[in-house]
Amino acid sequence: MVSTENNGHKMKIPHVMTVAGSDSGAGAGIQADLKACAALGVYCSTVITAVTAQNTVGVQGVNILPEDFVAEQMKSVLSDMEVDVVKTGMLPSVGMVKVLLHSIKEYPVQALVVDPVMVATSGDVLAGSSVLPVFRQELLPMADLVTPNLKEASYLLGGMHLETVADMRSAAKLIHDMGPRNVLVKGGDLPASMDAVDVFFDGVNLYELGSTRINTRNTHGTGCTLASSIAAELAKGLPMLSAVKIAKRYVETALNYGKDMAIGRGPQGPFDHLLKLKVCRSVAPRAFCPSDLFLYAVTDSGMNGKWGRSISDAVKAAIEGGATIVQLRDFIEAAKECVSICHSKGVPILINDRVDVALASDADGVHVGQSDMPVSLVRSLLGPEKIIGVSCKTLQQAHEAWINGADYIGSGGVFPTNTKANNKTIGLDGLKEVCLASKLPVVAIGGIGLSNAHSVMEINVPNLEGVAVVSALFNAECVSSATKQLHEILKQAVQTRK
């Protein structure tokens, strides 16, 4: 990890060193590694093995750097910068592989992630057949993880046909026999597969890790990005399988977000690692204020359907009644319409869990639960200006939310609720305990309505800013009237405790 000074104390920053080729089109290679690590909040240094001339059409040229200069780059970084994880991409010569092995023996690191880049997706050869024996016999036995796609796995296994998930399982075991501690065979190019399935093998257990297949041409650099994202999570201290799962979700989110971008004229475009390119703001983003949490309206499609109203109509009515912030649990095309409605009224709007939907619709942020995407990853994807809320029941969860970059916490369920079955309640005492310990503003949630909202607010503790409600608003015949009534109760409660 990179060391920095913070109030006289050293703070360690997770550090990945990528050893790979440069992609002039910036979709793959070290450019992808840099962007992925930046998105995930990890420092990334680079050792360039080759400079390529390539774009969305293919690779037009490869200029391999001298091995002694590659060695000099490695020594410069490893001798000075406390690298946690080394991730490799394009290693175009036997001598280059041996330089790498010598360097990490001299300067040991926590983990070595090998992405065996030998053939580009376009079919261009990036490493000759002479490299294959040293890969098998010397590099893979040193690797903590190797991440071949189907072509690379077949190449490592002497041309083995890989056409089914069962083939991938066999390949993962055979590659593991070559020495790496873990193997991830990537199935994104698997024929006739509805989902994108990768097979992970740790020497004991086989895992089939599925994700949604995104229909897009913008896939250039996904392999490099996945490997460097795994390396980034390992540098943070995560165990291997957890790192793989989080990295897969990040790649899926980025692919989905940038699926419609048009960069280049070729068959395979790059994707947007930082999830920023589609966002074009004409005005500065609205700053989060704790008072926004005063009357937090959480939509419910079932309840609105019961009363025959659209999500957008329900949102309009809630705002008219005095809702100060809105959370959408509905990820339909109405998201953009609801965002437009809220922004026109100066009311922030959040999306439940889905980072990609929040960015695509230009919502103000997201709210996540304890079992959803980690807050630190959400922050790295959304950037500093978006709002992030996280559900918390315990003091430890509240502390972690603050550490990982949340803006507020939703604490509950305070009372039993019909909207979430088997949701453990914390009661007013539990809510009070969380509020007193929290360093973030708190909104109470769970079973709160007209009959008990006053009792929640009158516990009169620091950080409790408001209540979040679902049924009390959206299961009423008139959302606007219900919101007005609840808003008035909350105002009276606040005046009473003053």
SSE topology:
Blueprint: E1 2-6, E2 9-13, E3 15-23, H1 29-39, E4 43-54, E5 59-64, H2 67-78, E6 85-90, H3 94-106, E7 111-117, H4 131-139, E8 145-146, H5 150-156, H6 165-176, E9 183-185, E10 195-201, E11 206-212, H7 222-235, H8 240-257, E12 295-298, H9 301-306, H10 311-321, E13 325-328, H11 334-344, E14 349-352, H12 355-361, E15 365-368, H13 375-382, E16 387-392, H14 395-403, E17 408-412, H15 427-437, E18 442-445, H16 453-457, E19 464-469, H17 471-474, H18 479-497
Parallel strand pairs: 3-4, 3-6, 6-7, 7-8, 12-13, 12-19, 13-14, 14-15, 15-16, 16-17, 17-18, 18-19
Antiparallel strand pairs: 1-2, 4-5, 9-10, 10-11
Helix pairs in contact: 1-7, 2-3, 3-4, 5-6, 7-8, 8-12, 10-11, 10-18
